[in-house]
């Protein structure tokens, strides 16, 4: 074999060896890279971590879970109290008294401002029990006075007359009374005794007291009632 042939064979062997070593080296490097990537821990991206750190979760509250505030509770309680108070309010008796209510009571032998159970024909002891003792004096005498109320007795200590100047009566006017009750049976001028006064008298039909009368004393100028008198002639 000549020199040129040996040289070509030698170069060919060197190239083959070099190519084989290069492939082996690449294979080893690839294995190392794969192993390194497999052992490396995964980490969340910086964008995801930042978003999670600043995210605020609002609690979900349903209508049944919401508790009323103190103000709402106080408002509800106040409304209930006001409603209850309004329902239980009693109307002032003054606004209920009219000529008609006075006449209806008088037919039963009493007046609207008197305590229940007190009427014409009641005894002195009944008066003291229901009305109490007079403001002045004892419990004896033909007449007992209780402020705006005078009560007169007969010889048998039975009540024959009530005269009341209660404020409820003084709010009425005689023309309104007449409009309710009709024309009185009698009208008397009493200005000689008390200036600017007169009386309107109604005759009552009462089986217990056949002769009983309801009298309205009034001011002839203002027309306001001065007092109401109920009396009977007990037979």
- Report the sheet with the most strands, covering strand number, pairing sense and barrel closure: 7 strands, antiparallel
As an assembly, this protein is single chain
> Strand percentage, roughly?
15-25%
Low-confidence stretches: 1-18, 37-94
**Strand order in the largest sheet:** 1-2-3-7-6-5-4
Q: How many β strands by DSSP?
A: 7
The residue fraction in helices comes out at 25-40%
Which value, in Å, is the CA radius of gyration?
57 Å
- Helix count equals 7
What is the secondary structure topology, with strand pairs?
Layout: H1 3-39, H2 46-54, H3 70-88, H4 99-106, H5 124-131, E1 143-146, E2 149-153, E3 159-164, H6 167-170, H7 174-181, E4 186-189, E5 197-204, E6 212-219, E7 225-232
Antiparallel strand pairs: 1-2, 2-3, 3-7, 4-5, 5-6, 6-7
What features would you describe in this structure?
The structure is a single chain. The chain has 235 residues and is α+β, with helices and mostly antiparallel strands. Helices cover 40% and strands 18% of the residues. The protein is built from 7 helices and 7 strands. It has helices spanning 3-39, 46-54, 70-88, 99-106, 124-131, 167-170, 174-181; strands spanning 143-146, 149-153, 159-164, 186-189, 197-204, 212-219, 225-232. It has a 7-stranded antiparallel sheet, with no helix packed on it. Strand 6 (212-219) and strand 7 form a beta hairpin. The longest helix has 37 residues, at 3-39. It is globular. The termini are far apart. Residues 1-18 and 37-94 have low confidence and may be disordered.
Short description:
This protein is of the alpha+beta class. 40% of the residues lie in helices and 18% in strands.
């Amino acid at each position: 074999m000549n020199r040129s042939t040996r040289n070509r064979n030698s170069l060919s062997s060197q190239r083959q060896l070099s190519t084989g070593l290069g492939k082996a080296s690449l294979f080893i490097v690839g294995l190392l890279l794969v192993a390194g990537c497999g052992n490396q821990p995964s980490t969340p991206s910086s964008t995801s971590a930042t978003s999670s750190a600043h995210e605020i979760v609002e609690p979900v509250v349903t209508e049944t879970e919401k508790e009323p505030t103190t103000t709402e509770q106080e408002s509800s309680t106040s409304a209930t109290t006001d409603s209850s108070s309004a329902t239980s309010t009693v109307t002032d008796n003054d606004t209920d008294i009219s000529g008609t209510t006075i006449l209806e009571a008088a037919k039963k032998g009493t007046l609207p401002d008197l305590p229940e159970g007190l009427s014409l024909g009641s005894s002195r002891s009944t008066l003291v029990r229901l009305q109490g003792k007079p403001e002045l004096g004892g419990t004896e005498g033909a007449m007992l006075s209780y402020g705006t109320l005078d009560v007169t007795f007969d010889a048998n200590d039975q009540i024959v007359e009530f005269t009341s100047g209660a404020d409820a009566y003084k709010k009425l006017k005689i023309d309104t009374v007449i409009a309710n009750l009709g024309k009185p049976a009698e009208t008397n001028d009493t200005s000689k005794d008390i200036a600017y006064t007169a009386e309107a008298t109604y005759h009552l039909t009462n089986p217990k007291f056949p002769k009983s009368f309801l009298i309205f004393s009034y001011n002839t100028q203002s027309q306001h009632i001065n007092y109401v008198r109920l009396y009977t002639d007990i037979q």
